[in-house]
Amino acid sequence: MRAAARFLLLWGAAAVGAELPPDGERWPAVRESLFGARALREDDGARLTLNLPARAHDAATVPLAIEARALPGEAALRRLYLVVDKNPSPVGAVFEFGDGRRRVALETRIRIEDYTWVRLIAEQADGTLHVTRHYIKAAGGCSAPAGKSLAERMAGVGEMRWRLRDTMAQLQIRHPNNSGLAMDQLTRLYDPPYFVRDVTVTLDGQTVFSARVDFTISENPSFRFSLPEGAGGELRAVVVDTDERVFESAVAVTAQ
To answer: Model's pTM, two decimal places?
Structure first.
């Protein structure tokens, strides 16, 4: 089933290949604000993998899977930048990793507001930058009204759940992650922006990843991520939202 799904994803991307537009006007400004005049090297697939559907089934919950690796002789990974060109907030996430990480994998769900290029940029410890991109057809994800009232979505805010399997862990966070752009269909008012801002995950006190994120991440944020090889101990998450509320959760991990 996984092989078939991957085939359909790749076929879908190829099917729209002839229609892909050039870079829009926003990307050069975003690129300059993040990296200045530093060179970005187009990756050939050896270092970066960015998996998204060619067309979103639900623009408010688009599955995203990324993987980055340092090749032999290259510096370790330092950061990953997720840029959604046409979203109201183009820089949706910046992930940082503990020292010496040479391969990382991460999955989450994001909002897409318009047909757009999505970019993954990897920064290595020596400052080298590599980029890959994917074009997706989706609309209205950031401004889509929620299916429940704000009071219902606020119930249990900050609760976290863990799932562990082999060398992967998943952190699920209960949070409305309001963009501030969606109208409440009952009150006809806009819910104020209120979203998870910072996520830090450590394993026995050592950083697995830290993330600066915004409402690009879907309601009830979920992060599935790779663990450092051979590591075990207490896996702890500290989450801070835009109201400066701090939530913590921990689980024991057996070394693999």
So the answer is: 0.90
